[in-house]
Amino acid sequence: MATFSYNIVLCGFMGCGKTTVGKKLSKRLGVPFVDMDHYIEQKAGCKVSDIFAKQGEDAFRDMEYECAKELSRAGGAVIATGGGALTFDRNVEALRQNGRIILLDTPLPIIKRRLSGDTTRPLLNRPDRDSAMEELYRKRLPLYRKASDLVIAAKGSPNAVCQEIIKALGLDACDTPAGQR
Question: Residue 38: CB partners within 8 Å, gap ≥ 6?
Fold first, then answer.
C-alpha cells in the first residue's frame, strides 16, 4: 500500500495513455483508480458522446467540473482526466487542491496511431479528423504544460511510464506492492 495522501492526477491529450497508465499505476501503488469520463458517465447514466450529442459540450464541461471538485475532496487515488478537463482553469484549481498533476507527454504521431479507427471521441468525429486533431493538440499542449506539476515522456510502455512517475514523485520501491516492482 502506498503512503501518500494526495491524488495523482494524469493529464494529456486523448490517446496519450492516461487510462492505461492510470490503471497500472493504481495497481502498483495499491490505491483506487478513477477515470473521470467513466465517473461522469456513471453519474449521468449515459456515455460522454451522448452527453455531447444531447446536451452539448457546455453541459458536459459543467459535469466535469463538479466531478473534479468531488474527486479532489478525497486523496490517495490515481485519477485519469479527460483530454479537455485541464484546459479549464476551474478544473485545474479543483484538482490541484489535493493532487499532483502529471502530464503524459506523448508525441502527436504516436497519438494519431493509437486513435486511428477510434470513433468514440466526439471532438474527432468529423470529416477533417486529422487536421482537427492537430489543431486541438497544438492548442491544448501549452495548457497541459501550464497545469502540470510534472511532465513525463509517455513514448514507452505503460510499465515504463509508471516507473517514471513513481520515481519522479519520490515514491520508494517499498511503496509498491510485492510482485509489482
Answer: none
